[in-house]
Amino acid sequence: MRLTVCGATGGTGVHVVRQALDAGHEVTAVVRDPARLPGDLRDRATVVTADVLDPAAIEPAIKERDAVVSALGPRGRGPSTVCADGIRAISTAAASTGVRRVVLVSASGLAADAGDGPFTRYVVKPLLLERILHGPFEDMRAAEAHLRGTDLDWTIVRPPQLLDKPAKGTYRKAVDLAVRGGLRIPRADLATALLDVLADGRTVGHVISVAT
Q1: For labelling, which of 53, 68, 123, 195 has a CA lying 20 to 30 Å from the CA of 96?
Q2: Could you say which residues form the signal peptide (predicted)?
Q3: pLDDT higher for 115 or 162?
Q4: Number of domain units in the chain
């Protein structure tokens, strides 16, 4: 697969790039600062320095690729538009270049549904959404809404709290529902899930929740 990763130097993006390369995929990493990408990955991936919020700037990195992963994420808990602005640019560039497949990393806290236990559904997630992580979640919500409104072959992946710990090597998933008791996932396992989603056409047009 010819894969473009936006947010390639982020905590999740680095794992996606590494695992995709290890699996034999051809990877283009879109970065602001190439020095932030580990040296062994710079040697193996095609590194494009560009503003991921500018559709024209990222078109060359997306053209003739099979899929794009947006691993962009807000920094901190304050207001942010990076996820929404990023997916707008990515979807515009994808449409312009004829690329169909786009996968967006979002967050499980955005939706409380029947997949959650009662405490998580009626207490934890509303608290996160309304008070603690309101800014980042609103950004992700806007990103999801934009991508859903396109005619691209999209999938939204919603992980819970991300851990910078070694991979467990397994994860749970649910389609269009939250994962019951899914509170955390190592970033490395999330990267595995993202690559699995890309390989599974049945996930197109769906939200995939993942957790360990």
Answers
A1: 195
A2: none
A3: 162
A4: 1
